[in-house]
Task: structure prediction
Amino acid sequence: MRSYCRFALFKILTNRALIALQYKLSFHPQASKLLSMSDAVSIQQVIEDFETLPTEDQDFLLELIHKRRIEKKRTEIARNATQTLTAIETGKAKRGTLADLRADLLEEE
Result:
């Protein structure tokens, strides 16, 4: 449990540091180039810090990241579904079978 608290504190400090760095760099003329360089350094540091964690904490973190990625994909699917339904309601998209699609494509030619 103690290492989980260390990780939570590390995560908070890392997020705050990255936000502060990105804010400072956003005013720099070559901000996009500098941000991508700072992200690479940050990722390397995160990997090194991850490797110092005990195995059980590494497993917990990997599982947490996996679950968050799944949730992100679900959110994206839901957003796409909403956009599709909106397109159908506004007449920008149609519902139908494969045969309907073929017929529409042949009509356009």
Remarks:
- The helical segments are 2-25, 31-52, 55-90, 98-108.
- The chain is about 85% helix and 0% strand.
- Residues 55 and 61 are 10 Å apart (CA to CA).
